[in-house]
Every structure is written in C-alpha cells, then in structure tokens.
Design a protein that fits this description.
With about 400 residues, the protein is mainly β. It has two domains: about 170 residues, Jelly Rolls; about 130 residues, Jelly Rolls, CATH 2.60.120. The protein is globular and about 75 Å long. The model has no long low-confidence stretch (mean pLDDT about 90).
Length: about 400
C-alpha cells in the first residue's frame, strides 16, 4: 500500500543466500499478493518459516455460525445499532462481534478483555481497524507498531501478528476487506507516490519499528481461512526475522491527519474518501469549516442511493444531521429508500460555520446483511425518527 521500506540484514539481491557470521543460512520468506504479480515483502528468518504444524486435536472454529444470519431478508428500514450494548469479551480477535457483512467486507466491533495470547494470521482479508478508545501495540514479524485513539491501523492479509492492549477500556471498529485495501488510485501519481493534492501524505503514515529477532515464548498461531480459525504451533519463535524489505507491512494513520475539503456548497461523501477496497469506499469525517456560500445548507442533503448501502460509525463530536446517536453507534442506510437529516436538522444547519464531528463511513456496493449480534443491539425507533413519529 505504501512505499518500499527496508530494515536489518539483507543480501545484495533477492533469492540469493544470506548467512550469519558463523555461516548459518537465513531463510527467505516472500509475502506476495496477486500471485507473484502484486505488492510483496521479503523477510529473512533464523529458522524455517514453514515449520509450523497443525494442532492435531484442535478443531476448526467457525466464526459465523449458520444461526448468525439465516438469510431471511430484513424489512427495508434505516437502522441504528448501539455498540455500547456489546459486552467486553475475549482476548483480541476472540472478542470480535460481527455486525454487518457482504461478500466484500465484514464490519465488526471489538471490546477486548485482554491482549492476545497467541499470534494471529488473517488468511481471508486485509484488516482495517479504527481505534475509538484505548492504546496498544501491534507486534508482528516486521516490528512493533504503536496505536492510540483515533488511529486507523491497517494489517495486510497473511501477516503474523498479535495485538497488545494497554487500556482495559479499548474499543475498535474492524473492517475485514476481501479485496486489497489501499488508498484510492486517483490519489497517486504515475510512479505510485501520493499526489501533492491528496488529502494526506506519506509522512502521515506510521510504519513498524523493526526490533530484530524476539522470543516471547509464544508458539501458538491462529490462522483464519474461509471464515474459520485453525490452530498451529511453531517449534521456535516466529518473530525470528533478522531483516526485511518490501511494501506489505502494518501501518497506522491518524484520522485527524486527513485533510478535509471545504466548498461553497455541501460536498458529497466521496470527497472524504480515504481508503478503497473491492466493493467499498471508506471515508473519514473530521472537524472542518463548513460551506461558505451565503445561502449554503451545510447539513447533508437528503438522497436516495441506487447502488450502495451506507454504514456510518460515530466516533465523537456533534452530528448535525442526526439526533439520538452516541459515540460507538453504527447506522445502516440501505439503497432503495431516501435518507438524510432527521426532521428540523436540515433547516437548523443553515448558518453553521464549522463542525467538530469525527466519523468513519463505508459505502458498500453489495447489499449488507445484519447478523444476529446486530439485531440484538438495534434501536427499534430509529427509522420512525425520519418521519417525526
């Protein structure tokens, strides 16, 4: 996703022998995308990276049991889900609560009760976290990446890591992307550099701090594949990397580093586009001046989307178009029926000069399905709030 980075011990050319001072061979490990045609990172291990063995007595754990969503279409409604009602549970990924999904993305909320005690590899999807509360560390084969409130954290598919949480009150949004996650293509120039008129720069992205080989005495690895978790065990520490280079690595981006666009009249959400993946655009709403035309209506205009379902995750600040939502709320506005400001919000926005809202939005091209977890935390009166009843 980002520019090439290199750390530690590397041979002069890829695919040739690298040895330590005593002549011991290092083991090359290529992380690739699109077969061998896409971005890649090459790591050099002290031990064989393919030495992990399946736990013989560990059965695969299905992440979305059939009862999570029986496939029955929900009534077409605008919906509001209160994640504050989700109980804190599980270490790290074990605490994922999937709420909305389609074939391109799965949107979950995590309220981890502890740091992860095993390493994790997502073999299904690139992961994009948004940290609403808490701080911690992504510890991977490539180094340590600190994160805190209001950070996006991206972890490419196939990277072994674990999350350490320093705050018992941590809360994160997780978007699992079945297609590659990256910045929208129009923000890059012909050589792949972020354009000067992009809403962020390479300097805004934090990269892992390489620390060399490390043994945390953890040997268990959980691999997610085809929406099930499978257990493996290494005979040695998998954090035995002496050097690496490439363009696939965990990264962090603070949402408040996003540079919002301002216009004389209200701009559509695509102007807030931050990341793109197959079938979805991820947008960032941050504090900014509002429209400056003397007759502008700063509140979003009512609209009917014929092609996308919209998810909005409310982070902080006052939301000019919504009443009744709270920090951590998710709203789902499906295609086919109009949505927009609730009664009086549109009119009341005239003359407003600025907003302090922070929110994450997804526009999804495939229809979204709500899991039973989502249905259990739904605000049943949300749809009626648009009619004034």
């Amino acid at each position: 996703m980002l520019e090439r980075v290199s750390h530690g011990e590397l041979p002069a050319k890829h695919h040739i022998a690298l040895r330590d001072g005593s002549g011991q061979l290092r083991y090359e490990h290529c992380l690739t995308r699109a077969g061998f045609d896409g971005p890649y990172t090459i790591l050099y291990h002290e031990h064989r990276p393919q030495a992990l063995a399946a736990e013989p007595d560990a059965a695969a754990r299905l992440l979305l049991p059939p009862s999570a969503s029986d496939g029955t279409p929900l009534a077409l409604r605008r919906r509001h889900y209160r994640s504050a009602r989700i109980a804190r549970s599980g270490p790290g990924h074990d605490g994922r609560v999937p709420l909305l999904l389609n074939a391109d993305v799965t949107v979950s909320v995590l309220k981890p009760a502890a740091s992860e005690a095993a390493y994790f590899v997502n073999g299904d999807a690139d992961e994009l976290f948004f940290v609403r509360k808490g701080k911690g560390l992504v510890r991977s084969m490539l180094g340590d990446l600190a994160f805190g409130p209001n950070d996006y954290v991206g972890i490419p598919k196939g990277i072994l890591y674990r999350m350490q949480f320093d705050d018992p009150d941590s809360e994160l949004l997780l978007i699992e992307c079945q297609g590659p996650l990256g910045v929208p293509a129009h923000f890059r120039n012909p050589v792949g550099q972020l354009r000067m008129d992009a809403p962020f720069s390479h300097r805004d992205f934090r990269k892992p701090e390489f620390r060399g080989p490390l043994d945390e005495k953890i040997r268990r690895v959980v691999v997610q594949r085809l929406m099930a978790e499978h257990e493996f065990r290494y005979p040695h520490s998998p954090l035995d990397v002496v050097g690496w280079d490439g363009t696939l690595y965990p990264w962090a981006f603070p949402i408040l580093a996003f540079q919002p666009r301002v216009s004389s009249v209200h701009l559509p959400p695509t102007w807030h586009g931050t990341f793109a993946t197959r079938g979805a655009l991820i947008c960032s709403f941050v504090p900014r001046p509002l429209d400056f035309h003397p007759e502008a209506i700063p509140c979003p205009y009512p609209h009917s989307s014929g092609d996308v379902d919209e998810i909005l995750y409310y982070v902080s600040g006052a939301f000019s178009s919504r009443a009744g939502v709270e920090a951590g709320s998710l709203t789902l506005h499906p295609r086919g029926i109009p949505h927009g400001p609730q009664p009086s919000r549109y009119e009341a926005s005239i003359g407003a000069k600025a907003t302090d809202e922070v929110a994450v939005m997804l526009d999804c091209y495939l229809p979204l399905t709500a899991t039973e977890h989502a249905r259990a935390i739904e605000d049943g009166g949300y749809d009626q709030s648009f009619t004034g009843t």
